[in-house]
């Protein structure tokens, strides 16, 4: 069988929807964190949590896609070490996209603000209330987010370099409506 040259429509839709939600969740989280305690802060943090839980669910769906599909091969012109680095980076991104929402859920439990997904489904608390643990977990959530931002920066820079400098098919494989390779 000839291997596919592009990601499937499902993989492309999941990738870009997740990216969009992440680009919304990060500034919303930072803005809400900076606000003084108020009804507005609680409302914005609720929206942030809904986005975060949705990103977690999308990541599970993406991992299910990965378990049942082989991604299209990278252009053969890319050196093997770079192909390995790209795959390693994707794995790390997936780990962070599971760990960040989990740390958010844990910190919400510790701080005594349960997660009510979309205002409909209350998730169980993962740990008992503890202000100290809550503060520690906020720090963990922040550090994991800094790592995510750094890795996404690298990921986007690599995608743009392949597209505009090397002019190969790396980015087109992940773009909707593109004619392919
Ligand atoms: C991939 C998904 C997520 C991303 C990218 C993300 C990102 C962030 C960022 C950047 C902040 C601001 C941190 C700061 O400025 O100090 C933040 C704060 C926060 N996040 Fe998330 N988050 C995600 C998922 C979640 C989830 C699923 C929950 C809870 C269920 C959550 C709960 C919180 C809370 C409660 C804060 C405010 C902490 C505080 O101010 O005390 N996050 N998040
Ligand atoms: C928060 C933002 C983003 C995250 C978390 C993210 C994450 C990922 C992950 C995990 C994969 C691996 C897919 C797989 O094979 O399972 C991937 C592939 C890819 N992403 Fe992103 N991405 C983001 C934003 C972007 C942006 C803005 C671009 C373009 C400028 C981009 C371009 C690509 C390309 C071209 C691939 C395929 C690369 C390859 O197969 O080596 N991504 N992305």
Structure, explained:
This protein has 181 residues and is mostly helical. It is built from four helices and two strands; from the N terminus they run αααββα. Strands 1-2 form a two-stranded antiparallel ribbon. The chain is elongated. The mean pLDDT is 94.
Helix vs. strand class: mainly alpha
Approximate shape: elongated
**Arithmetic mean pLDDT:** 94
Q: Number of helical segments?
A: 4
What binds here, in terms of ligands, is: protoporphyrin IX containing FE
Strand order of the largest sheet: 1-2
Outline the biggest β-sheet. 2 strands, antiparallel
Rg over alpha carbons:
19 Å
Proportion of helical residues:
55-70%
Count of strand segments? 2
Query: What pattern of helices and strands is seen along the backbone?
Result: HHHEEH
The poorly predicted ranges are none
From the N-terminal CA to the C-terminal CA, the straight-line distance is 17 Å
How much beta, percentage-wise?
under 5%
In short:
By secondary structure, the protein is mostly helical. The protein contains 4 helices and 2 strands; from the N terminus they run H-H-H-E-E-H.
């Amino acid at each position: 069988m000839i291997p596919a040259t592009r990601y499937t429509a499902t993989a492309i839709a999941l990738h870009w929807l997740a990216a969009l939600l992440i680009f919304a969740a990060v500034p919303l989280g930072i803005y809400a964190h900076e606000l003084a305690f108020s009804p507005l802060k609680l409302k914005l943090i609720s929206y942030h949590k809904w986005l975060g839980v949705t990103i977690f669910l999308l990541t599970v769906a993406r991992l299910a896609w990965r378990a049942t599909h082989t991604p299209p091969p990278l252009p053969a012109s890319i050196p093997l070490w770079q192909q390995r680095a790209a795959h390693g980076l994707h794995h790390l991104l997936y780990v962070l996209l599971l760990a960040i929402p989990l740390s958010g859920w844990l910190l919400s439990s510790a701080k005594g603000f349960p997660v009510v997904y979309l205002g409909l489904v209350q998730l169980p608390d993962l740990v008992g209330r503890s202000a100290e643990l809550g503060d520690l977990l906020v720090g963990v959530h922040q550090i994991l987010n800094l790592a995510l931002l750094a890795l996404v920066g690298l990921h986007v820079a690599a995608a743009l370099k392949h597209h505009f400098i090397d002019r190969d098919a790396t980015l087109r494989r992940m773009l909707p409506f593109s004619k392919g390779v």
